[in-house]
Amino acid sequence: MKTLKTWKPFEGDIAEIQQQFPLPLIALAQGEVPALVLRGAYKPKHCSSLIDRFYERGLLYNPHGTGRPHRVDIGTSFGKHRADRAKFFAHSCQTLGLFSTLFEGYDDPVQTMYETLEKLATDKEVKTAREPDGQLYGPAIFRAYYAELGHGPHYDSVAKRTKAFDYQVSRFEHQFAGVLCFQNSDSDGEGGEPFLYNCPWSSAIQEQLSGEKFRQYVDEKKIERVQIDLEPGDLYFFFSENIHEVPHIIGERPRIVLAIFFAMSPDDDEIYVWA
Fold first, then answer.
1. How far is CA 115 from CA 118, 121, 195, in A?
2. Which domain covers residue 94, as residue numbers?
3. N or C, which end of the chain has less CB nearby within 10 Å?
């Protein structure tokens, strides 16, 4: 697949990002930049130590041999649990309880992501998504992708894709994602590292969103794409309404990340975060 080089992630600290993009999230939503990358946002040693803890506590495990291979999550997935509202919020409550002690002895990686986002969007209040009655969503989620697991081309939007209008997160104009790398896969090729396409979702794009069909469409239209190369402790944010994919993992070492969704509107003083 051909890749054009004019659409590139921007790497820097908070001050450098804000100097280049005074409104960083709007720059992402408008396609000025595919991603904002903050290297070393979290201590790599804490990444490896927490992964050891997750395995010791049985929170992470190799899903091969347990039936149908699946991604292993630590946390509450809105997409997976939203259909049953009561179960979703009960699961979210369990996640909040788990995360309140899971990181003891180490920097809190969820807080790292929230604080970084708040520094980027200085005019907004960043908070865990919630309903008017105070029920909280899961604040973030660890995702472990083992061999042969990944995501094909897709986009993420509660309002446009999920159409879950009975949840408060649907009220916002723009949806984004944040990813904090905890561990890379052992692939030397494209496997495991995410690709972002300069291609926001539209109804015209929808029919193209099958693996090979989309790749052919990208070649024909000369749509730019970038691959985000991360090391443990690196953090990046992107506009999740752009088409993106995670190639299937090759090798035995899983790719492990801490991920969030978040949403905002220019005229709303809050940013809601969930997983």
1. 5, 10, 25
2. 10-274
3. N
